Amino acid sequence: MTAAVSYARLAAADVGRWESAAAAWRALAAVGGVRSRELAAETTGLRPAWSGSAADAAAGRLRTAGHLVDAARVAWWEADQAVSVFAAELSRARRLLDAALAAAARAGLTVGPNGEVSAAARTIPGLSGIAPSRNHAPPGPAGAGGRAGGSGTAAHVGSGGSGGSGGSGGSGGSGGSAASGGPGGVGAAVAVDGVVVAIEAALAVAARADADAAARLAALADTLVHAAPGTHLTPPCNATPAEIRAWWAGLSPVERRWLTATHPATVGALDGVPAAARDQANRLLLDRHRAEAPAGGDRWEALDALADRLAGDAPRAYLLGVDPAGDGRAVVAVGDPDSADHVLTHVPGMTADLAGLGPELGRAERVAVRAGELAPGARTAAVLWLGYDAPDFVFEASSARQAEAGAEGLRRFQDGLRATHEGPPAHHTLLGHSYGSLVVGTAAARPGLAADDIVLVGSPGAGVQTAGELHGQVWATSSRSDAIQYAAPAPRSLPADLLVAANVPVVGQMLAFGRPEDDLWHGRNPAGEEFGARRFASQASAGHVGYWATDGPALDNLARITVGDAAGVTRP
């Protein structure tokens, strides 16, 4: 049973202190990384001047010491994750509490320092220092003493009379009805009850977060006293994400931490390993990539920018994949997808690469933030999935080859999200922008994709002719000023489209009041009526990349789709 959290403690909670504590754990892990690299450098420096069995033994011991340092860093990141999640949930509970207090103020109610709710100078007891009972309910049409709650939190809210006891549920006397409309009548009781329920919801969020964080930190403390395992741990070959999840669950905490420290490239890339462990492994891997990249070069700067974002806490990011080869790839979650109620996976389009990760991640993050505002009682995570080689040039984007290559990895990633999720299944939304919509469409063209909603934004075609060919509820939008929907396939020829694409902002504005093409490079226009998707509104000025502007309808609609609020989505 979840422990109660008092109103007074939640009202006084300092979220910033918990965020600072999480940042301190991350900083400790960063210092450990510096020491680990120094140890590795010293070990390497010994080899030219020292050889033989003693040198080999010493080198082995030093390597083990390095692994132990990395295992400690994994443990520190575990602490960071637990405290970061607690801080985020505590912040959410405070927002819910603030909303409840605002509702009380609008209704003319007051909430005391211990959570007691008052209406018309009549106090509603039962909230002082504990989570309020859900049994509190508005009274029936009995007399003045009508019972407000089933048990424990009874409240006298009727006017007049001295009849039955609210605590015992006795009938009212002759002094009047609770429905008389006087001060503290049925209307006030309903308002009080609404505030009680809202406060209770905030306290419940805080209580769950408190219990979860305590359990995670206690489990971490218990495992730190054990030595590293001596066995070699390997995942099953060719396993599905669900099988990987079962294998991982069968390892002890010490085994998982040791495997993460010694084989971060393996753990970090495994769909089916929980997001928290993948984040720890990929942070280790990121450090190695940064150490190997020439300082000051483009690759180093891209990796350094990613490391800076991971060091922040607004909100905490999870590194689910990183590969600096070529243009670079990365998978980054904002919030923990394994514990979220709603999960958005954002697939970017042409020219997306590691160097430009920041703006793409910002788009996904803006949807998550807006979703949190629309559904404050639920947890939302957003994932930027740049797990494929996006086209660099228009002539590459005219081919489906890279989308086909990326679609299978996207399907497996989504399967992994389903496999590692904790609690009831999350609502999954898969969003593809520009060429990313072709990746999404290719993945969704076969049954079994782990996504409830498919969203195609500024699409050059999804590889199909109708929404019915995709598996999931399909949504689509294209701005009137997005030049992508004016790029028709042959016989108009690719050169003409190259000219359009090379001048997307200018051409988009020129054609904002023109007629979009029905057939695009990769199939029928998803934003057209004949495609059959649920079309939603986006601002006419969005062009090709402005759908995430905070003052336009597109962002709000994307957030509503993410939280499953189909009824609130506005149509063009």
UniProtKB/TrEMBL annotation:
Domain of life: Bacteria
Domain DUF1023: 323-488
Renumbered residue ranges of the record's region Disordered: 128-183
InterPro entries (alphabetical): AB_hydrolase_fold (IPR029058), DUF1023 (IPR010427)
Biased composition (Gly residues): 142-183
Protein name, per record: DUF1023 domain-containing protein
Species: Spirilliplanes yamanashiensis
